[in-house]
Design a protein that fits this description.
The chain has about 170 residues and is mainly α. The protein has 2 domains: about 60 residues; about 80 residues. It is built from 8 helices and no strands. InterPro entries: Phage_186_CII-like. This is Phage regulatory protein CII (CP76).
C-alpha cells in the first residue's frame, strides 16, 4: 500500500533534542509520572533509553507540542501531523495568513546565498511544517464550512459532477 522508508537523517533525534530544550523537564516529568532523569535520558539520543510510542503520545498530549510526532513522521519521510481538533471555521483567515507568513520566511531564507547552518535548517523545516499544518487546517475549515450547509454541499457536488461530465477541470 505505502512504501515507507526510514530516513538516514536524524529527524527524530533532532526532534527529541529540540523538545527537551523547549520544555521544563522537571515539571513535565512530574506531570507525566516519570523521573526527571529518566525523561532526560529518553530524550537524549546518546542514551540507550528510548521513548515508547505511548510516552511520545503522552508528552505530545501534555504539552500540545507536535515536535516529537513530526520528528517520527519525518524519520519515515512523511509530512507533519495536522491536529484536526484545532480546526475552527472562524480561524480560516488566520490559518491562511500564518501559512503565507511561513512560506514568506522560507522564500527569504531560500534567497540567502550563505551556507545553511544546522540552526537555519531546523528553522526552515519548522517553517515548512507550520505552513503545511496551517494550509491543511484552512482546507479542513473550508470543507467543514461547505459540508455544514447541506444546500451548499449539494450545489458544490452538482457543479463538480457537471464540470467532470463536460470535461472542465
Amino acid at each position: 500500500m505505502f512504501d515507507f522508508k526510514i530516513s538516514t537523517q536524524t529527524h527524530f533525534d533532532d526532534a527529541c533534542r529540540k523538545f527537551a530544550l523547549t520544555h521544563n523537564m522537571a515539571e513535565l516529568a512530574n506531570v507525566a509520572g516519570m523521573k526527571v532523569q529518566t525523561l532526560r535520558n529518553k530524550l537524549n539520543p546518546d542514551q540507550i533509553h528510548q521513548l515508547t510510542v505511548c510516552e511520545m503520545l503522552l508528552l505530545t498530549d501534555l504539552t500540545e507540542d507536535a515536535t516529537l510526532v513530526d520528528g517520527a513522521l519525518a524519520q519515515l519521510q512523511c509530512l507533519p501531523c495536522v491536529p484536526v481538533n484545532e480546526v475552527a471555521n472562524e480561524k480560516y483567515s488566520a490559518y491562511v495568513l500564518k501559512a503565507t507568513a511561513e512560506v514568506g520566511m522560507l522564500a527569504a531564507k531560500a534567497t540567502n546565498p550563505e551556507k545553511i547552518t544546522a540552526t537555519c535548517r531546523r528553522g526552515m523545516v519548522e517553517a515548512a511544517n507550520t505552513g503545511i499544518r496551517c494550509l491543511m487546517l484552512a482546507a479542513i475549515a473550508v470543507q467543514t464550512r461547505i459540508h455544514s450547509n447541506p444546500t451548499l454541499a449539494s450545489t458544490v457536488d452538482a457543479i463538480s459532477g457537471l464540470s467532470a461530465s463536460i470535461g472542465i477541470s
